[in-house]
Specification:
about 280 residues, alpha/beta, Glucose Oxidase, domain 1, Rossmann fold, about 20% helix, about 25% strand
Amino acid sequence: MALLALEDGRVFRGGAFGAPGSALGEVCFNTSMAGYQEILTDPSYKGQIVAMTYPMIGNYGVNSADVESWKPHVSGFVVRELSGPSSWRSEQSLDDYLKANKIPGLQGIDTRALTKHLRTRGAMKGLISTEDLSDQQAVEKAKAWTGLVGVDYVKEVTCSAAYDWDPESKLSRRWKIPLGATTDPEAYFEPLPKIRHRIVAYDFGIKRNILRNLRQSGFEVHVVPATTPASEVLKRNPDGVFLSNGPGDPAALPYAHDAVRGLIGKKPIFGICLGHQ
Protein backbone atom coordinates (compact mmCIF):
# COMPACT_ATOMS: atom_id res chain seq x y z
CA MET A 1 0.00 0.00 0.00
CA ALA A 2 1.00 3.61 -0.54
CA LEU A 3 -0.45 7.08 -0.01
CA LEU A 4 -0.24 10.65 -1.21
CA ALA A 5 -0.88 13.30 1.44
CA LEU A 6 -1.38 16.97 0.59
CA GLU A 7 -0.67 19.86 2.91
CA ASP A 8 -4.36 20.87 2.93
CA GLY A 9 -5.32 17.55 4.57
CA ARG A 10 -6.44 15.57 1.50
CA VAL A 11 -5.09 12.01 1.41
CA PHE A 12 -5.21 9.49 -1.45
CA ARG A 13 -4.48 5.82 -0.73
CA GLY A 14 -3.70 3.12 -3.29
CA GLY A 15 -1.14 0.55 -4.31
CA ALA A 16 2.63 0.96 -4.25
CA PHE A 17 5.06 0.49 -7.12
CA GLY A 18 8.59 1.63 -7.76
CA ALA A 19 10.89 2.01 -4.77
CA PRO A 20 9.69 1.63 -1.17
CA GLY A 21 10.03 4.62 1.15
CA SER A 22 8.85 8.22 1.36
CA ALA A 23 9.50 11.37 -0.64
CA LEU A 24 8.43 14.99 -0.29
CA GLY A 25 7.74 17.31 -3.18
CA GLU A 26 5.45 19.82 -4.82
CA VAL A 27 2.47 17.89 -6.20
CA CYS A 28 1.56 18.72 -9.79
CA PHE A 29 -0.12 17.01 -12.74
CA ASN A 30 0.54 16.36 -16.42
CA THR A 31 -2.24 15.75 -18.97
CA SER A 32 -0.12 14.08 -21.68
CA MET A 33 -1.44 10.79 -23.07
CA ALA A 34 2.08 9.53 -23.75
CA GLY A 35 5.65 10.59 -23.04
CA TYR A 36 5.84 9.59 -19.38
CA GLN A 37 9.52 8.69 -19.76
CA GLU A 38 10.30 12.15 -21.10
CA ILE A 39 8.41 13.66 -18.15
CA LEU A 40 10.28 11.55 -15.61
CA THR A 41 13.66 12.55 -17.05
CA ASP A 42 12.86 16.25 -17.55
CA PRO A 43 15.09 18.15 -15.06
CA SER A 44 12.33 20.78 -14.68
CA TYR A 45 10.40 18.27 -12.55
CA LYS A 46 13.10 17.95 -9.90
CA GLY A 47 11.52 18.37 -6.47
CA GLN A 48 8.03 17.54 -7.73
CA ILE A 49 5.61 14.62 -7.36
CA VAL A 50 3.96 14.20 -10.76
CA ALA A 51 0.49 12.74 -11.34
CA MET A 52 -0.59 11.62 -14.82
CA THR A 53 -4.23 12.21 -15.79
CA TYR A 54 -4.21 9.61 -18.58
CA PRO A 55 -5.46 6.40 -16.92
CA MET A 56 -3.03 3.77 -18.24
CA ILE A 57 0.70 4.41 -17.86
CA GLY A 58 3.66 2.10 -18.50
CA ASN A 59 2.42 0.11 -21.49
CA TYR A 60 5.47 0.78 -23.68
CA GLY A 61 8.05 0.48 -20.91
CA VAL A 62 11.26 2.49 -20.72
CA ASN A 63 14.19 2.69 -23.14
CA SER A 64 17.53 4.49 -23.29
CA ALA A 65 16.73 6.41 -26.50
CA ASP A 66 13.82 8.52 -25.23
CA VAL A 67 15.35 10.08 -22.12
CA GLU A 68 15.54 13.87 -21.82
CA SER A 69 18.54 13.78 -19.47
CA TRP A 70 20.84 11.34 -17.71
CA LYS A 71 18.31 10.16 -15.09
CA PRO A 72 14.74 10.67 -13.78
CA HIS A 73 14.36 13.73 -11.56
CA VAL A 74 10.84 13.49 -10.12
CA SER A 75 10.45 12.91 -6.39
CA GLY A 76 7.46 10.61 -6.87
CA PHE A 77 5.10 9.36 -9.59
CA VAL A 78 1.33 8.85 -9.41
CA VAL A 79 -0.80 6.93 -11.95
CA ARG A 80 -4.33 5.55 -12.19
CA GLU A 81 -3.31 2.15 -13.56
CA LEU A 82 0.23 0.80 -13.92
CA SER A 83 0.49 -1.26 -17.11
CA GLY A 84 3.13 -3.84 -17.95
CA PRO A 85 5.28 -3.12 -21.02
CA SER A 86 4.35 -4.41 -24.47
CA SER A 87 6.70 -2.79 -26.98
CA TRP A 88 9.68 -3.94 -29.03
CA ARG A 89 11.51 -0.79 -27.91
CA SER A 90 11.09 -1.51 -24.19
CA GLU A 91 14.28 -2.23 -22.26
CA GLN A 92 12.80 -2.09 -18.76
CA SER A 93 9.41 -1.85 -17.08
CA LEU A 94 8.36 1.45 -15.52
CA ASP A 95 8.13 -0.29 -12.14
CA ASP A 96 11.72 -1.58 -12.36
CA TYR A 97 12.96 1.78 -13.66
CA LEU A 98 11.59 3.62 -10.64
CA LYS A 99 12.92 0.96 -8.29
CA ALA A 100 16.41 1.29 -9.80
CA ASN A 101 16.30 5.06 -9.32
CA LYS A 102 14.82 4.96 -5.79
CA ILE A 103 11.60 6.78 -6.74
CA PRO A 104 8.34 5.76 -5.02
CA GLY A 105 5.15 5.39 -7.02
CA LEU A 106 1.43 5.31 -6.23
CA GLN A 107 -1.19 3.59 -8.40
CA GLY A 108 -4.89 2.87 -8.19
CA ILE A 109 -6.13 6.32 -7.19
CA ASP A 110 -8.45 8.63 -9.11
CA THR A 111 -5.80 10.86 -10.70
CA ARG A 112 -8.43 13.02 -12.37
CA ALA A 113 -10.00 13.79 -8.99
CA LEU A 114 -6.52 14.69 -7.75
CA THR A 115 -6.04 16.91 -10.80
CA LYS A 116 -9.34 18.71 -10.23
CA HIS A 117 -8.33 19.29 -6.61
CA LEU A 118 -4.95 20.72 -7.64
CA ARG A 119 -6.53 22.79 -10.39
CA THR A 120 -8.83 24.40 -7.83
CA ARG A 121 -6.40 24.72 -4.91
CA GLY A 122 -3.15 25.09 -6.85
CA ALA A 123 0.06 23.07 -6.64
CA MET A 124 0.87 22.23 -3.04
CA LYS A 125 3.36 20.43 -0.84
CA GLY A 126 2.88 16.70 -0.54
CA LEU A 127 4.24 13.39 0.73
CA ILE A 128 4.24 10.11 -1.19
CA SER A 129 4.96 7.13 1.02
CA THR A 130 4.82 3.35 1.29
CA GLU A 131 5.39 3.50 5.06
CA ASP A 132 2.78 2.69 7.70
CA LEU A 133 1.56 6.22 8.43
CA SER A 134 -1.78 7.55 9.58
CA ASP A 135 -3.44 10.26 7.50
CA GLN A 136 -2.60 12.83 10.16
CA GLN A 137 1.07 11.81 10.33
CA ALA A 138 1.39 11.97 6.55
CA VAL A 139 -0.26 15.38 6.30
CA GLU A 140 1.96 16.79 9.05
CA LYS A 141 5.06 15.61 7.18
CA ALA A 142 3.79 17.30 4.01
CA LYS A 143 3.14 20.55 5.88
CA ALA A 144 6.59 20.50 7.47
CA TRP A 145 8.43 20.33 4.14
CA THR A 146 10.19 23.59 3.26
CA GLY A 147 8.87 23.63 -0.31
CA LEU A 148 10.40 25.01 -3.51
CA VAL A 149 10.42 28.72 -2.67
CA GLY A 150 13.99 29.98 -2.41
CA VAL A 151 15.46 26.63 -3.48
CA ASP A 152 18.18 26.43 -6.14
CA TYR A 153 17.81 23.06 -7.87
CA VAL A 154 19.48 24.32 -11.04
CA LYS A 155 23.00 23.76 -9.70
CA GLU A 156 22.06 20.10 -9.16
CA VAL A 157 20.92 19.47 -12.75
CA THR A 158 23.11 21.71 -14.92
CA CYS A 159 26.07 20.31 -16.85
CA SER A 160 29.46 20.34 -15.14
CA ALA A 161 31.35 21.64 -18.19
CA ALA A 162 30.58 23.31 -21.51
CA TYR A 163 30.13 21.13 -24.60
CA ASP A 164 29.06 21.24 -28.24
CA TRP A 165 25.73 19.57 -28.91
CA ASP A 166 25.74 16.86 -31.58
CA PRO A 167 28.96 17.82 -33.40
CA GLU A 168 28.60 14.80 -35.72
CA SER A 169 25.00 15.71 -36.62
CA LYS A 170 23.63 12.27 -35.74
CA LEU A 171 21.70 12.73 -32.49
CA SER A 172 19.33 15.36 -33.88
CA ARG A 173 18.13 13.63 -37.05
CA ARG A 174 14.44 12.89 -37.57
CA TRP A 175 13.28 9.39 -38.43
CA LYS A 176 11.61 8.74 -41.79
CA ILE A 177 10.12 5.71 -43.54
CA PRO A 178 11.95 5.02 -46.83
CA LEU A 179 10.07 3.90 -49.92
CA GLY A 180 11.01 0.35 -50.84
CA ALA A 181 13.38 -2.08 -49.19
CA THR A 182 16.88 -0.83 -48.39
CA THR A 183 19.93 -1.91 -46.43
CA ASP A 184 21.25 1.65 -46.19
CA PRO A 185 20.86 2.78 -42.53
CA GLU A 186 21.06 6.44 -43.59
CA ALA A 187 17.84 6.01 -45.59
CA TYR A 188 15.89 6.01 -42.32
CA PHE A 189 16.87 9.57 -41.37
CA GLU A 190 15.97 13.01 -42.68
CA PRO A 191 19.08 15.08 -43.49
CA LEU A 192 19.72 17.98 -41.14
CA PRO A 193 19.75 21.52 -42.57
CA LYS A 194 22.99 23.41 -42.96
CA ILE A 195 24.06 25.45 -39.95
CA ARG A 196 22.95 29.06 -40.37
CA HIS A 197 23.60 30.49 -36.91
CA ARG A 198 25.83 29.76 -33.91
CA ILE A 199 24.20 30.10 -30.50
CA VAL A 200 25.08 29.51 -26.86
CA ALA A 201 22.54 27.62 -24.73
CA TYR A 202 22.49 28.08 -20.96
CA ASP A 203 21.78 24.74 -19.29
CA PHE A 204 19.46 25.40 -16.35
CA GLY A 205 18.14 21.85 -16.75
CA ILE A 206 17.84 21.59 -20.51
CA LYS A 207 15.95 18.78 -22.24
CA ARG A 208 17.68 16.92 -25.05
CA ASN A 209 14.70 17.32 -27.34
CA ILE A 210 15.09 21.10 -27.16
CA LEU A 211 18.68 20.70 -28.30
CA ARG A 212 17.55 18.41 -31.12
CA ASN A 213 14.98 20.94 -32.28
CA LEU A 214 17.49 23.77 -32.23
CA ARG A 215 19.84 21.76 -34.45
CA GLN A 216 16.94 20.78 -36.73
CA SER A 217 16.25 24.50 -37.15
CA GLY A 218 19.77 25.20 -38.40
CA PHE A 219 21.49 26.25 -35.17
CA GLU A 220 24.92 25.12 -34.04
CA VAL A 221 24.57 24.86 -30.26
CA HIS A 222 27.29 25.32 -27.64
CA VAL A 223 25.93 24.42 -24.18
CA VAL A 224 27.32 26.11 -21.06
CA PRO A 225 26.72 25.52 -17.32
CA ALA A 226 24.14 27.68 -15.57
CA THR A 227 26.77 29.63 -13.62
CA THR A 228 28.68 30.78 -16.71
CA PRO A 229 29.17 34.59 -16.59
CA ALA A 230 28.08 36.75 -19.51
CA SER A 231 31.69 37.72 -20.25
CA GLU A 232 32.58 34.13 -21.16
CA VAL A 233 29.59 33.83 -23.47
CA LEU A 234 30.38 37.12 -25.20
CA LYS A 235 33.94 35.93 -25.88
CA ARG A 236 32.47 33.31 -28.21
CA ASN A 237 30.57 36.05 -30.09
CA PRO A 238 27.48 33.90 -30.74
CA ASP A 239 24.62 34.99 -32.99
CA GLY A 240 22.23 34.54 -30.07
CA VAL A 241 21.75 33.12 -26.59
CA PHE A 242 19.18 30.55 -25.49
CA LEU A 243 18.00 30.24 -21.86
CA SER A 244 16.72 26.75 -21.09
CA ASN A 245 14.01 25.34 -18.89
CA GLY A 246 14.88 24.32 -15.34
CA PRO A 247 13.56 23.39 -11.88
CA GLY A 248 12.97 25.24 -8.64
CA ASP A 249 12.56 28.93 -7.87
CA PRO A 250 13.95 31.36 -10.49
CA ALA A 251 14.22 34.03 -7.79
CA ALA A 252 16.92 31.91 -6.12
CA LEU A 253 19.31 32.16 -9.09
CA PRO A 254 21.29 35.42 -8.71
CA TYR A 255 24.04 34.14 -11.02
CA ALA A 256 21.46 33.68 -13.80
CA HIS A 257 20.03 37.17 -13.25
CA ASP A 258 23.54 38.66 -13.46
CA ALA A 259 24.35 36.76 -16.66
CA VAL A 260 21.17 37.86 -18.41
CA ARG A 261 21.72 41.48 -17.36
CA GLY A 262 25.17 41.28 -18.92
CA LEU A 263 23.75 39.97 -22.19
CA ILE A 264 20.72 42.22 -22.65
CA GLY A 265 21.27 44.68 -25.47
CA LYS A 266 24.38 42.82 -26.67
CA LYS A 267 22.95 39.61 -28.09
CA PRO A 268 19.48 38.38 -29.08
CA ILE A 269 18.10 36.28 -26.21
CA PHE A 270 15.20 33.84 -26.03
CA GLY A 271 14.15 31.41 -23.35
CA ILE A 272 11.73 28.66 -22.31
CA CYS A 273 10.20 28.13 -18.86
CA LEU A 274 11.86 29.05 -15.51
CA GLY A 275 10.37 32.55 -15.57
CA HIS A 276 12.07 33.57 -18.83
CA GLN A 277 8.73 34.51 -20.41
